[in-house]
Amino acid sequence: MASNKMNIAVIPGDGIGKEVVPEGVRVLNAAATKYGLDFNFDEFHFSSCDYYKQHGQMMPDNWKDQIGGHDAIFFGAVGWPDTVPDHVSLWGSLLQFRREFDQYVSLRPAKLMPGVTSPLAGRGPGDIDMMIVRENTEGEYSSIGGRMFPGTDREIVMQETVMSRVGVDRILRYAFDLARKRGGKLTSATKSNGISITMPYWDERVLEMQKTYPDVTVDKYHIDILAAMFVLHPDRFDVVVGSNLFGDILSDLGPACTGTIGIAPSGNINPERKFPSLFEPVHGSAPDIAGKGIANPIGQIWSGAMMLEHLGHPEAAQGIMTAIESTLTDPALRTGDLGGTADTITCGKAIAAAV
Amino acid sequence: MASNKMNIAVIPGDGIGKEVVPEGVRVLNAAATKYGLDFNFDEFHFSSCDYYKQHGQMMPDNWKDQIGGHDAIFFGAVGWPDTVPDHVSLWGSLLQFRREFDQYVSLRPAKLMPGVTSPLAGRGPGDIDMMIVRENTEGEYSSIGGRMFPGTDREIVMQETVMSRVGVDRILRYAFDLARKRGGKLTSATKSNGISITMPYWDERVLEMQKTYPDVTVDKYHIDILAAMFVLHPDRFDVVVGSNLFGDILSDLGPACTGTIGIAPSGNINPERKFPSLFEPVHGSAPDIAGKGIANPIGQIWSGAMMLEHLGHPEAAQGIMTAIESTLTDPALRTGDLGGTADTITCGKAIAAAV
Ligand SMILES: CC(C)[C@H](C(=O)O)[C@@H](O)C(=O)O
Ligand SMILES: CC(C)[C@H](C(=O)O)[C@@H](O)C(=O)O
């Protein structure tokens, strides 16, 4: 049985993260009242470039002790390139969480919602509805590599892509299970014609796993043509599984096809619940609009719904989704990026009220 | 002065390559008559899976001697996965040409043409017109890596991404030069927030190169959001430069946004002309429609125009482009993938006649 008492670590991070996280919390509190849940929110100010400026590192040494015991992490966005280079801020925080808390599944829906206009001609609500399953701990995001002959004409840099049987099989198993629960169809993103070692291995494991899921139909596309197909035939896809990098690309491209990445949510999930999972919008800290109060809070709020689902409260999650959908149909309650007139707080309050 | 006599190696390859290459040759011959050019075409049947079936390898040992002296290579498509795994056929042919002939620039236009419907709402001819410049010899397509503990739970595969100063700088220089000739604007594809060694290096070299091109404006996008922007705001891009993998993805996605990858051409160019350059459509051998005579030959024909441009005959190249554009506006002369009724040969003959 899922517990009604939940201990959540809240990390706003940088930029618009600080503006949208409070709206996410507002909506979660509304859901708590409605569905009889009991949240305890602990806010943390590390994992931000402000913290880095003061301490010379993104997080305190004991960050794992501070948040490792929570039921989940509700995360905004991190990154402020004017202060800290992105690869320093990200590898010092978000990518640490994913790896150290073994959040090996990144789950990212791309669904065309009412009130949102797709950039694709002739596609309406419901026409696009896919779930992107991204490997989240290994692959192209590796920490092995280096530079030789620096500063000379012979300079060379190398970085390993690393795939392990454990790592590949567990993400495939998750994706196959999800496909079985949804339409019975799985698309695998590969590039085995060009990337000649890791990607044929990926294909090999897909073929192997397929044997234990005879009820799931599997398509395999090279990433280049798959990206093209997202634009030309997005309706053909349901569950799509990819490596860390391919999943990253597809989970921005998919939401773009559904009109905006401003509302796209994501879960960084440790399915075994040995560690807390982390829920965050797909968008980043958006330095260009930060501080103006105009950011769209829906990606954050939807991430809250995914968190509730993960913690065993599907009814409350569905309640938030229904509130998001009804709010989206009213231009006075949508933010400017969706052609509406609302600011961040107005939109967040409207969704909380609808819950 | 460009010579009017040109010695071309013709390699049809597999699948629809064998159907579209003759149409490309037909149109080149028409251009020769019109513009007073003199082609000698030598056809080669290696670099195909048929050849592999007979000889156990994709090409004869002396392939470099056989085609290295030609002025250019006019290439169809290679790959027939039922017979030969893709990474074997591709690494045994096309990827060899690119590397051994040091064709370090892959140049790929994405242009919305008359008569072609974009999948993007509200975009008409001329609204999308970009040039993708892809690094074509190193990066993610590497031959370093391997597998350990095969067949066990500890199994692990690794593959290096390799970037050299020589390799990165020369592709950037080409892209900056091209941007200077076109709109003065360059977009660099990166992923330095997640891929922490090679991609920050790529950014570093872009910054350095920028110093010598003060007249070119440079934008930098991470590949995930860049893919999204291609769909949301394709009009913002002119020249886009990326690594081998990122260029590969963008040069399928870009043409998809312009309606089809069936007409997209590409050049694999050795700018110093120490080796022959290779011109091929972006599409592959398309086993699903091969043998039916319905493939769209325009990607191949447009590649012929790029070849003429490269060999110093811009007027003849422009003649072919004008013929393509006028043919595209007539449904009776377009192939079925573009909603027309023509077969491959009818479309090819029409373009040849228009030249
Ligand atoms: C066939 C494949 C190896 C090739 C590539 O990835 O380079 C193709 O997709 C291309 O773009 O020319
Ligand atoms: C910020 C960046 C490192 C991150 C990623 O690439 O994983 C982001 O794009 C995401 O998708 O969560």
Automatic annotation (TrEMBL), chains A, B:
Pathway: Carbohydrate acid metabolism; tartrate degradation; 2-hydroxy-3-oxosuccinate from meso-tartrate: step 1/1; Carbohydrate acid metabolism; tartrate degradation; D-glycerate from L-tartrate: step 1/1; Carbohydrate acid metabolism; tartrate degradation; 2-hydroxy-3-oxosuccinate from L-tartrate: step 1/1
EC annotation from Swiss-Prot or TrEMBL: 1.1.1.83, 1.1.1.93, 4.1.1.73
Keywords: Manganese, Metal-binding, NAD, Oxidoreductase
Listed GO MF terms: D-malate dehydrogenase (decarboxylating) (NAD+) activity; magnesium ion binding; NAD binding; tartrate decarboxylase activity; tartrate dehydrogenase activity
Alphabetical list of InterPro entries matching this protein: ICDH/IPMDH, IsoCit/isopropylmalate_DH_CS, IsoPropMal-DH-like_dom, TTC_DH
Pfam families noted in UniProt: Iso_dh
Catalytic reaction(s) noted: (R)-malate + NAD(+) = pyruvate + CO2 + NADH; (2R,3R)-tartrate + NAD(+) = 2-hydroxy-3-oxosuccinate + NADH + H(+); tartrate + NAD(+) = 2-hydroxy-3-oxosuccinate + NADH + H(+); (2R,3R)-tartrate + H(+) = (R)-glycerate + CO2
Residue span, Isopropylmalate dehydrogenase-like domain: 7-351
Gene3D superfamilies the UniProt entry points to: Isopropylmalate Dehydrogenase
PROSITE patterns named in the record: IDH_IMDH
Cofactor(s) named in the record: Mg(2+); K(+); Mn(2+)
Function: Has multiple catalytic activities. Apart from catalyzing the oxidation of (+)-tartrate to oxaloglycolate, also converts meso-tartrate to D-glycerate and catalyzes the oxidative decarboxylation of D-malate to pyruvate.
Family: Belongs to the isocitrate and isopropylmalate dehydrogenases family.
UniProt name for this protein: D-malate dehydrogenase [decarboxylating]
